[in-house]
Design a protein that fits this description.
The protein is mostly helical. The protein has eleven helices and five strands; from the N terminus they run ααβαβααααααβααββ. The chain starts with a helix and ends with a strand.
């Protein structure tokens, strides 16, 4: 379970000699689904310390409530010295009093420890130092993500899965989203919005919002009108939901430094302003 699936593939490659099945999860909901709903029983879970850096967090409490227990190791915990990393992992596992025999996983711990000391790997691992950026074009073990999960991952984590979706899939997903949005808004999607959508993989809802506001550039749009436009199967979007969409779109416009465009809020509504337009 990691924020760095690209880097963890390098570690996973070292584990192949143990003839084990490996799954890498960038999104925790997928892990919980496989464990609780589909009966996945891992021999060990290597958990990214950067996901849960609060020492008060106890992942075993979640597992015990559902009657599932397996060893969990914070593989990139910043505390132990490299040569004592395995001892640190074993100490924390033993003090839970949940595992009487850890001999089965000790060879795996040895391999992961060695991988984290490899100069070809450790510079890229977060937690144990400020990591270098590493991206892979061949994600071999990652559990597939749906479109919303890919967007969430990219919006929340700096280590973006740049090569997770092939260019062919990007184009196909882009085309499907554009067609849905054109149907929802009853207006053509402007070419400018299409370019941003393709580059940033905007969700259906954000593409609808951007397209609708771009079609009414420099015009105040009441919040109630936008909620209606973004309604789904008759369920109108809540004001909080609209504020979240506006927040995400505003961040994208700022991050991309799209010349002249600014999303402002006033008088119980919003306006997409083109500062360069006279």
């Amino acid at each position: 379970m990691t924020r760095q699936p690209d880097v963890c593939q390098l570690i996973a490659d070292r584990l192949i000699r143990h003839k084990v099945e490996i799954k890498i999860y960038p999104v925790i909901t997928n892990l919980l689904r496989d464990v609780f709903d589909f009966g996945l029983e891992p021999d060990i879970l290597f958990l990214d310390y950067m996901y849960y850096s609060n020492e008060r967090f106890n992942p075993y409490s979640i597992l015990k409530k559902r009657g599932r227990i397996f060893p969990i190791v914070l593989y990139n915990h910043p505390f132990p010295l490299p040569e004592r990393r395995k001892d640190f992992w074993l100490f924390n596992l033993k003090r839970t009093s949940l595992f009487s025999d850890l001999s089965k996983i000790e060879p795996i711990l040895d391999t992961v420890k060695a991988a984290l000391e490899d100069p070809d790997i450790y510079p890229y691992v977060s937690g144990i130092q400020q990591p270098k950026i590493y991206h892979s074009s061949n994600l071999r073990y990652i559990v597939p993500l749906n479109n919303d999960e890919v967007e969430y991952y990219k919006n929340h984590f700096s280590n973006v899965i740049t090569d997770f979706i092939t260019q062919d899939k990007k184009t196909r997903k882009f085309s499907n989203t554009v067609r849905k949005c054109e149907k929802a808004t009853k207006i053509p999607i402007p070419d400018f919005v299409k370019k941003v959508q393709l580059k940033k993989h905007l969700s259906h809802k954000l593409t609808v919002l951007f397209s609708y506001m771009y079609s009414k550039l420099n015009t105040h749009i009441p919040a109630t009108e936008l909620c209606t436009v973004l309604s789904n199967n008759g369920d109108e979007l809540s004001p909080n939901g609209l504020r979240l969409c506006v927040y995400r779109l505003r961040n994208i416009l700022c991050a991309e430094k799209i010349a002249g465009l600014e999303l402002i809020s006033f008088n119980y509504g919003y306006m997409l302003v083109d500062r360069q337009k006279k």
